[in-house]
């Protein structure tokens, strides 16, 4: 049994994500303090809320979290969590982790937010093993622009705006969509992440 820390920065409902992560019997712990990452086998940054308050909540834990990512702890960052991997956001004040160089910008579309299902063009990566023709669930107004396009492992187009659907650096993955709400393919993505932990 592995210990998965679901980091709570006080901005989202963690129930459905925690349930999906715990399907194999792993110990899923909701933590508010990154100092408790020492015993963790994996870290998950959840994905509901606004960048500013979440970045503020991360502030005191930033260095410890970056150390954990640098040490190679597997991390899955979802929606807002993915945005927090970047430097900063046009949504609000605050400093992200800067683990992936780049900025978060508002969707360039006539209708924002994007709410609902959208196709995802994936690149070969263990996170997408066994997943073909991915259609995932989105709930976002902001998207990430990576400085290095090689960090992007999946793309989505919304009303003519093509943006990063997933990124990777080392053993850290970020997905702009919600795998826990994306039916069987989304659960397969979570299982693939759990495979990386195990």
Descriptive notes:
This protein has 198 residues and is an alpha/beta fold. It has one domain (3-197): 3-Layer(aba) Sandwich (Rossmann fold), CATH 3.40.50. Helix content is 22%, strand content 32%. It is built from 5 helices and 13 strands. The chain has helices spanning 15-21, 51-58, 62-70, 80-84, 183-197; strands at 3-7, 27-31, 42-45, 75-78, 88-89, 102-106, 114-119, 121-122, 135-140, 142-146, 152-158, 161-169, 172-175. The strands form 3 sheets. The protein has an 8-stranded mixed sheet with strand order 2-1-3-4-13-12-11-8. The protein has a 3-stranded mixed sheet with strand order 5-6-10. The radius of gyration is 15 Å and the shape is globular.
Structure classification? alpha/beta
**Strand order within the widest sheet?**
2-1-3-4-13-12-11-8
- Weakly predicted, low-confidence segments: none
CATH topology group: Rossmann fold
SSE string: EHEEHHEHEEEEEEEEEH
Briefly, what CATH class?
Answer: Alpha Beta
Judging from the principal axes of the Cα atoms, what is the shape? globular
CATH superfamily: Class I glutamine amidotransferase (GATase) domain
- Examine the secondary-structure arrangement and name the CATH architecture: 3-Layer(aba) Sandwich
The overall number of domains is 1
Helix content: 10-25%
**What composes the largest sheet?**
8 strands, mixed
Summed up, the helix count is 5
Strand content: 25-35%
CA radius of gyration: 15 Å
> Could you give the count of β-strands?
13
How much is the average pLDDT? Answer: 94
Q: How far apart are the first and last residues' alpha carbons, in Å?
A: 9 Å
């Amino acid at each position: 049994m592995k210990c998965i820390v679901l980091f709570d920065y006080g901005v989202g409902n963690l129930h459905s994500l925690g349930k999906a992560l715990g399907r194999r019997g792993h110990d899923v712990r909701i933590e508010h303090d990154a100092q408790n990452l020492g015993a963790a086998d994996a870290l998950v940054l959840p994905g509901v809320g606004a960048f500013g308050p979440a970045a503020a909540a991360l502030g005191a834990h930033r260095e410890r979290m970056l150390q954990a990512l640098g040490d190679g702890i597997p991390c899955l960052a979802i929606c807002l969590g993915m945005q927090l991997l970047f430097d900063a956001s046009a949504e609000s004040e605050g400093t992200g982790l800067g683990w992936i160089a780049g900025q978060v910008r508002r969707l360039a579309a006539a209708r924002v937010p994007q709410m609902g299902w959208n196709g995802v063009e994936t690149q070969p990566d263990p996170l997408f093993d066994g997943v073909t023709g991915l259609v995932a669930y989105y709930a976002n107004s902001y998207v990430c622009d990576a400085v290095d396009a090689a960090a992007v492992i999946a793309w989505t187009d919304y009303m003519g705006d093509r943006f990063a659907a997933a990124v990777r650096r080392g053993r850290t993955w970020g997905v702009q969509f919600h795998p826990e709400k994306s039916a069987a393919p989304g659960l397969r993505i979570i299982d693939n992440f759990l495979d990386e932990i195990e």
